[in-house]
Write a structure and sequence with these properties.
The chain is mainly α and 524 residues long. It is built from 22 helices and twelve strands. The structure holds zinc ion. The site of zinc ion has 9 residues, from loops.
């Protein structure tokens, strides 16, 4: 199989062959509106564009990944974690003009932008960041704005034909900033004289913000106005010269925003729309959670749950049209570590496949030397056992000493496992050794089987997981106890749960004296 990013770049080479010969570098673009804490879903676009850009460059096709921090849109909703009373007055005002929460950043957009930019950088994706306010203010959008206003009828017709949405006949595709109250969402453009837009700031232009009633005339250029977003999308393709730009599934439906933008790009701006890469959602716990909702779904929070290489595995392993479902409260995290480790095995044994390429990209073509990787779920289990040396336990599993690199890897996984157990891990991964014998009643046959187990432990100073496993089977057979009853007795007296990790191994890592005392107490 061809790795997904290679497949996409193959197509880009075919479709953009002429551009590739004439233009250097190509522009690969993606963006995020900074209306609050950025949801992890936005990392999907970053990863797809970032990797496609890397693969282009690896093939000697000069290309640059530019990431837009959209600070020019207006605030249209107040995130739930901010004070409604404090921000209500900014509804309808552009994000770069709103003060930063806690005053630590230059403005509202920068506050959330810097956190997201750090996540992108820490995850190892290389992008050149720019702000949309700078693009508008520089005059780079002016020609596109003028063309949009002059082609208002054509744009109206495109909206209707492509997406079925009707705009009033007097509609102008431009929105100016009110010179009186500073809001942008509340204004309605009335006419354009070639230089200035006459507008009125209406009380009821939108439901969520109130205009001031001011009537005026102002220039739409150099940051004085913005375009409606589907028109703006096409205008960016045109003004910036975008060659490759994907979009999430929500925008990629037939008649959706991308179709409208593409039609405007072709028919109004006379350009070929960028090469598209439609991609599926990134769900958190099965839901397409919005960034205003909170716990466990922001890019920062999720990136902090995982070491860099596992975060990149999460972002890169699936093809763009596969949904990513990340559930920190389920099996996702242990499964991701397992996936990473199996990719590593393939890579180190040089199995020729797309997984080898994927593993290389996860490590930005600088993968670690072959080593023993401690399984995450085992680490997560062992860190909960008191008095257990993880190094010793993994040396038993490896059947050899751990190298320095392996010890370092183990330490790293211990840190992530502890934090996962503390904050998110589901009940089935939590094994809390009970300090005292839980309040349970055992049957006679359970007591007698546990008595046999006690004898074995008393008679042996040490035992491996396998020896313990064999002994448990022997006891089971000789006593005739129902296996479920036997194992649940073991887990009950130690964990106060009906199930747990593999019993032989579980018992072998518990402190021997503790185990003797607990068994004695339980069969009394
Ligand atoms: Zn106003």
């Amino acid at each position: 199989m061809v790795f997904w990013a290679d497949k996409i770049v193959n197509e880009i080479e075919k479709k953009l062959s002429k551009t590739i010969m004439q233009k250097a570098p190509l522009l690969v673009r993606d963006e995020k509106t900074l209306s609050g804490r950025v949801h992890i879903g936005s990392m999907r676009g970053v990863a797809i564009h970032g990797i496609v850009n890397d693969v282009l460059n690896e093939r000697g096709i000069s290309s640059e990944f530019q990431y837009e921090l959209n600070d020019f849109d207006a605030m249209d909703d107040i995130p739930s974690y901010l004070d409604k009373n404090e921000y209500e007055k900014y509804l309808g005002v552009q994000l770069y003009k709103i003060p930063s929460p806690d005053g630590s950043a230059e403005n509202f957009a920068e506050y959330f932008g810097r956190e997201f930019v750090q996540v992108i950088k820490d995850a190892g994706f290389d992008a050149r960041f720019y702000r949309l306010s700078e693009v508008y203010k520089s005059g780079k959008m002016d020609e596109a704005i003028e063309k949009a206003i002059l082609n208002k009828d054509k744009i109206r017709e495109i909206y209707k034909r492509v997406s079925g949405s009707e705009k009033p006949e007097d509609w102008l595709p431009v929105q100016v900033v009110c010179q009186n109250c500073g809001k942008i969402s509340t204004t309605k453009a009335i006419s354009f004289d070639g230089k200035e837009v006459t507008y009125v700031c209406k009380e009821d232009q939108v439901k969520w913000a109130k205009g001031c009633g001011h009537k005026g005339k102002t220039s739409p250029f150099k940051g004085g106005a913005s375009l409606p977003w589907k028109v703006e999308w096409a205008a960016k393709f045109y003004a910036l010269g975008v060659d490759v730009e994907g979009a999430g599934k929500d925008h990629s439906t037939k008649g959706g925003a991308r179709d409208v933008a593409n039609a405007i790009a072709k028919e109004v701006y006379g350009i070929k729309p960028p090469f598209d890469i439609p991609y599926e959602f990134f769900l958190v716990g099965g839901a397409k959670m919005s960034s205003s909702k909170g716990r466990g779904s922001s890019a920062k929070e999720i990136s902090e749950m995982l070491p860099k290489e596992i975060f990149r595995t999460l972002l890169l392993a699936k093809r763009p049209m596969q949904t990513i479902d990340f559930n920190p409260e389920g099996d996702t995290i242990p499964n991701l570590f397992d996936l990473h480790d199996s990719l590593a095995e393939d890579y180190w044994s040089s199995v020729e496949s797309d997984t080898v390429i994927l593993f290389g990209l996860i490590y930005k073509n600088n993968p670690p030397e072959k080593m023993f990787l401690p399984r995450f779920s085992t680490v997560a289990y062992l860190v909960q056992m008191p008095h257990v040396s993880l190094v010793e336990e993994f040396e038993k599993i490896k059947e050899d000493k751990l190298t320095e690199a392996e010890k370092y890897e183990l330490q790293k996984r211990v840190k992530y496992a502890q934090s996962w157990l503390e904050k998110y891990a589901p009940e089935k991964y939590i094994f809390k050794i009970r300090q005292n014998l839980p309040n349970i009643s055992l049957t006679d046959i359970q007591k007698s089987a546990l008595g046999e187990l006690l004898k074995f432990i008393e008679n042996n100073k040490s035992y491996t997981g396998e020896q313990m496993h064999a002994k448990l089977h022997e006891i089971k057979k000789e006593s005739g106890i129902d296996p479920r009853e036997f194992f649940s007795a073991i887990y009950r007296i130690i964990l106060d749960k009906d199930s747990g990790p593999k019993a032989g191994w579980f018992l072998s890592v518990l402190d021997r004296d503790f185990l003797i005392n607990r068994l004695k107490e339980a069969i009394k």
